[in-house]
Amino acid sequence: MDAALGAPEKMAGRADELTPMMAQYFELTRQYDDALVLFQVGDFYEAFCEAAERVARLCEITLTKREDSTGEYAMAGIPIDNAESYVETLLDAGYRVAIADQVEDPDEVSGVVERAVTRIITPGTLTEDELLGGAANNYVAALACEGSRYGLAILDVSTGDAYATGSDSLATVADELGRFDPSEAIVGPDAPTDPFDCMVTPYDERAFTAEQARERVGEYFGPPERLLASDAEVRACGALLAYAEYTRGGAGVGEDGRLEYLNHLTRYDPREYMVLDAVALESLEVFDRRSVRSSEGLALIDAVDETACAMGRRELTDWLRRPLIERDRIEARHEAVEELVGAVRTRERLHDRLREVYDLERLISRVSRGRANARDLNSLGSTLDVVPEIRDAIADSDSTKLQSVHDHLDDLPEIRSLIAEAIADDPPPELTEGGVIAPGYDGTLDELRETERSGKAWVEDLEEQERERTGIDSLKVGHNAVHGYYIEVTDANLDRVPEDYQRRQTLKNSERYYTPELKEREDEIISAEQRADDREYELFVEVRETVAAESERVQELADALAQLDVLVSFATVAAEFDYTRPEIAAEGIEIEAGRHPVVERTEDAFVPNGAALDREHRVMIVTGPNMSGKSTYMRQIALTALLAQAGSFVPAERARLRIVDRVFTRVGASDDIAGGRSTFMIEMTELAEILEHATADSLVLLDEVGRGTSTTDGLAIARAVTEFVHDEVGATTLFATHHHELTDVADELPGVFNRHFRTSREDGEVVFEHEIAPGAAEASYGVEVAGVAGVPETVVQRAADVLAGETTASADDGVPTRTNGSGSAPGSDRESKSASNETLDSAGETDAIRDRLREVSIAETTPLEALQLLAELQSEIEE
Ligand SMILES: Nc1ncnc2c1ncn2[C@@H]1O[C@H](COP(=O)(O)OP(=O)(O)OP(=O)(O)O)[C@@H](O)[C@H]1O
C-alpha cells in the first residue's frame, strides 16, 4: 500500500487526542483511502504526514510542518487559486485526488469549520474545464465479466456521453477500447486488466453486483433489459454510474445521489460499426500523427475538420472512430452532405451560426452539477437564440437526415425567455456578490436595489450639502471597507466642524466623522445590499434548477447541432478540396483518380491514382522502389473507405465502394524495446491477428510483411500469407513488398494481380513518378534511394558494388536470385565494375558467421541483443 494514501500512521496512534481539525483530516483520509486528500485550510489545500511529503516532492513545493499539542506533522499546501496545475501533476503521477472543502462559512461558526469531500478528481472523470484539454472527449471505462461474456461501459463525465457494448471476445473488447482510448478504467471482480492502456483500479465489488447495478441503471435509463444485451453490460454500466457518483462526492448530485445530466445511454453492438482497432487507427493516422511519414503534423481528422463548435469536433471524432456499415445510414449522410455541398449560401450561413454555439454538453453538465455561473446560463441562452435561424435554414431540405436534425432542433422557448428575463447582461463570475439577476425580474429584489441606490445617491449629494452647511470647501465624503462612510475635514478647518459630527478616525492631517443620519443611511444601504445579494443568489439557484430539469432536451439539441456541424463540415471540405460522393456498391472497390486526404494537402504535385479490386481481383501486390508511394497509396484506399463509411465524400474523381466490415493494417513496424519484443515478433503478432479475424468483407493492408527476418524466411512468409488470404480469407488485400519474387504468385492464383509504381531516370538519377501502373516493378532501386536520401557517396558506391557482386555470387550459392522480367538488375552496367569484388569469398570466415547467424532465434531477440551480436560479428571480421 502506498504510504501517501489512507490515514497517516502517526495520527492513527493518537486518534483520540487529535485536535478537532486534525481529527477531521484523519477521518477523511480513512474514508477516502484510495485518493490523496487535499484538505482546505483557508486559502490552501493542505496535505499532512506522508501525503505531504509526496505532494511536496511531486509538485515541487516546500514541505513545512504543523505543530500542535499532540505533536508535529509534516505539511504541504497548495494555493487554492491555482490548484489546477498541481492537481494535474498529481493525476499524472497516477493518483486520484479527493478535494475536502470547507463547507461552512468560517465567519459564521465558532469552533472548527466542517469539511467534506466535494469531489474526487480522477483522470477519467475530470470535469474541471481547465484540466480538460480542449474539446476532446475524456472517457472512463468499466469492464465486467459474466461467464464468457464481457460487458463494457464508457462514459464522459464532462458531457454525459455514455456508451455500452458487449462481446464474447476479449480481443473485441480491446478493439473497442482502442477506439475510445479512455484515460481511466475500473474493473469488476474476475475481469481482466490487460486490455487497458490507462490507469486501472479495482472498484467496490458491491457496485458490480447484478442487483445493485440493475437498480442504478434503472434509475438513470429505465429498465436495463430494454436497453442492454447482457448481465455483464448491466454490471459494467451500474458500476460505472456508481463510480461517477462517487467521484462527485455528493456535490452537484441530485437529492437521490443521481447525476441529473446523465440520462441517455447509447448501446451498440461492435458489429454495427466498421471495426478499427488501435493498430489501424494509429497506422492510418486517423487521430494522431505518430509516424514520420505523414507530413506537417496533420492527421486525417485535421484534414476533414471544418467543424464550427466543440460539440461538432467531438461528434466528428465519434463518426471517424465508428464508421457505419449499414448502407441506408451511410447513404443518408451522403445525401445530406450532397445537399449542403450544393447549397453554398445555406452552408456558409449554418457554419457562421454554428460558430456562435457554445459547448452545450459541458454547459448542461455544469448546470446539473450546480457548478454553472450566470455567464454559463447566458452562454446557454445565446446558443438557444441562434437555434431558430439554424432550423429555418434547413427547414426545406430534401435530405431525410437533415429533416431529422431539423426536427430535433428545439430552442426550448421557455428556458430561453427565462434566461433572457432573469439573468443580467454582463454578470460577474461570482454568484454571491450581486449583479447576476436582471432588473425587472423580481419585485423584492428591485425594491432592495432601489433602497440601496437611493441611499447611495443621498450620500453622493451629501458632500455638496455639508460644504454649504459648514462653509468648508475642502470637505469630502468618502467610503472605505473598514470604517464605512465618513466625512473628512482637514486639520486647518477643524474649528468649523458642527456639533452633530462624531469622530470616526484620525489621520495625519485630517479627521473623519459621521453623523447620525449618515450612519442610519449607511446601515440601510448595507442591509439592502446584503439582502439583495442573498436574494439574487437564491433566484439564480432557482433558475439554474429549472434549467437543469430540462437537461435531457438540452442534450438532444446538443446532439442535433453536433450532427449538423459534422455534415456541414463534410460538405465544406468536399467543396473546397473537390471530394466526390462515393457510390455504395454491393461488390468491389473502384476508385478513379483517388488522392490521399492528408498527403495531397502537403505535397505540391500530388499524383492521383485509381484502384480496381473485386472478387476476381482481390489481392493486389504492389511493388516499386522505396519512396515511390506504395504506403501512401495503400493508406489512401483505406482512408477513402473509412471516410465514405463515416458519411463523408471522398478525395477522388469517382468512387464506387463496397462496405468494409473492418480495416486491418500491418504497416511499418516500430520497435518495442521496453516490451522486449523484436520488430519481427510484433509483425508476426499483428499478422496472426489479421489472419485469424479477417473476413471476405475486410480490407487488409500489408506493408512489407516478413521484413524483420532473413530474405528467404521473409519471402516464404509473404508467399504463404498471400496464398492464405487469397484462398481461405478472401479479403480485399493490398500487399506492398520488396520481395519481387512475390509478384510471381499473380501467375499462379487467379485473384492475385500486380501493380507497381513507375520510376524513371533522369541524368542517372531516379525520378519517382508516383503513378501506379499494371504489372510488377523491375527492381527496387534501394541503393539509388540511399543516395537521394543523403547517404555519403562512398557508401552508396560501395553498396552498388556489393549489390553487383552479390547478384553474381548468389547464383552460385543457391540463394534465390532476382527473377524480375529481364532477369537482370537495372544497374547491370555496374556488374562489370565490380568483377574484382573481394568481400564474400573468404569461405571459412563466411561460414562461421553464417552458422552464428543461423543459431539466432530472431523471435526471441531484442533489438539491443541484435545490435550486440552485430557488433561482435563486425569485430570478428575485422580481426
Ligand atoms: N501520389 C503521390 N503524389 C505525390 N507524392 C507522393 C505520392 N505518393 C507518395 N508521395 C510522396 O512520396 C513519399 C514516399 O511515399 P511512401 O512512403 O508512400 O513510399 P513507399 O513506396 O511506401 O516507400 P517505402 O518503400 O520506403 O516504404 C511520401 O512522403 C509522399 O510525400
TrEMBL record:
ATP binds at residues 624-631. Residues 807-848 are annotated as: Disordered. PROSITE patterns: DNA_MISMATCH_REPAIR_2. Keywords: ATP-binding, DNA damage, DNA repair, DNA-binding, Nucleotide-binding. GO terms for biological process: mismatch repair. Residues 698-714 form the DNA mismatch repair proteins mutS family domain. It holds the Pfam family MutS_III. GO terms for molecular function: ATP binding; ATP-dependent DNA damage sensor activity; damaged DNA binding; mismatched DNA binding. This protein is involved in the repair of mismatches in DNA. It is possible that it carries out the mismatch recognition step. This protein has a weak ATPase activity. Belongs to the DNA mismatch repair MutS family. This is DNA mismatch repair protein MutS. It comes from Halapricum hydrolyticum. The lineage of its organism: Archaea, Methanobacteriati, Methanobacteriota, Stenosarchaea group, Halobacteria.
